[in-house]
């Protein structure tokens, strides 16, 4: 299985403060990598370094096995914090604008993405009248322009109601299963994350303290006869020492 992302001793300091500390992580093709940490643990800072929004103070990263990050980042779709949507435009107009911005001349891509994200029936409705869940699906849709191989989602389900969360979950699973898109997702909502992720990384005070697969998580959280003893939330709290 090929390696999509590898960080080597990646470090970010702001002044004297180290907010990402010597962090080495690996994401393989096909993973849905759940990135877990408390507020301020360094998740967004790591994601910003991966996507080129922040420069590392030390260490480096490889994308798709290469140190040519300019090329690699063309194959990454990103949704970080509040997505930048044009509120006065329809979903389709937003997608067409994104195609133009990225130099994608085949506008049929906009229509196929619209169908994929379940917004093809929104017609003339403007984004300002969308629910939060619809906006979030559109934000993911915009990140799909250019057919990325890696999707980086920072807290994509924050503030969504259960229906909105389910729609995002179904979309992520569809993108991963049907389009073979690898996903890095950070979320505080661990119950939800555990329904999606195939691998996990726990970051605490800027350090990656554990990486494990869903199978390992299952084994660690269940007795030999399959009885559940812990969920991801409890596992996470134990891993960071309940702090
Ligand atoms: N530009 C900056 N200048 C100084 N400190 C920063 C900057 N960006 C982030 N930090 C600090 O780095 C630490 C890690 O922040 P980061 O946003 O990466 O955490 P996080 O794990 O994403 O948290 P949250 O879940 O709250 O978003 C925080 O203490 C934050 O205050």
UniProtKB/TrEMBL annotation:
InterPro entries: AAA+_ATPase, ABC_transporter-like_ATP-bd, ABC_transporter-like_CS, P-loop_NTPase
GO molecular function, one term: ATP binding
Gene3D superfamilies xrefs: P-loop containing nucleotide triphosphate hydrolases
Stored PROSITE patterns: ABC_TRANSPORTER_1 (PS00211), ABC_TRANSPORTER_2 (PS50893)
Residue ranges annotated for the ABC transporter domain, each copy included: 5-230
PANTHER family assigned to the protein according to its UniProt record, in alphabetical order: ABC TRANSPORTER, ATP-BINDING PROTEIN
Similarity comment: family membership: Belongs to the ABC transporter superfamily.
Protein name, per record: ATP-binding cassette domain-containing protein
Species: Dorea phocaeensis
Organism placement in taxonomy: Bacteria, Bacillati, Bacillota, Clostridia, Lachnospirales
């Amino acid at each position: 299985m090929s390696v999509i992302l590898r960080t080597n001793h990646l470090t970010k300091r702001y002044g004297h403060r180290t907010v990402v500390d010597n962090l080495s992580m690996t994401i393989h093709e096909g993973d849905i990598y759940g990135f877990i940490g408390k507020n301020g643990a360094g998740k967004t800072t790591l994601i910003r370094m991966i996507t080129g929004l922040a420069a590392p103070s030390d260490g480096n990263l490889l994308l798709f096995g290469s140190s040519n990050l300019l090329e690699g980042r063309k194959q990454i779709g990103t949704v970080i914090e509040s997505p930048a949507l044009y509120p006065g435009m329809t979903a389709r107009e937003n997608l067409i604008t994104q195609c133009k911005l990225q130099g994608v001349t085949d506008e049929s891509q906009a229509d196929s993405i619209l169908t994929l994200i379940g917004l093809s029936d929104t017609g003339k409705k403007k984004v300002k009248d969308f629910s939060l869940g619809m906006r979030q699906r559109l934000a993911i849709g915009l990140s799909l322009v250019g057919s990325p191989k890696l999707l980086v989602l920072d807290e994509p389900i924050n503030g969504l109601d259960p229906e909105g969360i389910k729609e995002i979950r179904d979309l992520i699973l569809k993108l991963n299963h049907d389009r073979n898109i690898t996903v890095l997702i950070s979320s505080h909502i661990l119950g939800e994350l555990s329904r999606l992720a195939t691998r996990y990384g726990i970051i605490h005070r800027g350090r990656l303290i554990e990486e494990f697969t869903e199978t390992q998580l299952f084994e660690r959280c269940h007795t030999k006869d399959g009885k559940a003893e812990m969920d991801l939330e409890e596992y996470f709290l134990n891993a960071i020492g309940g702090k």
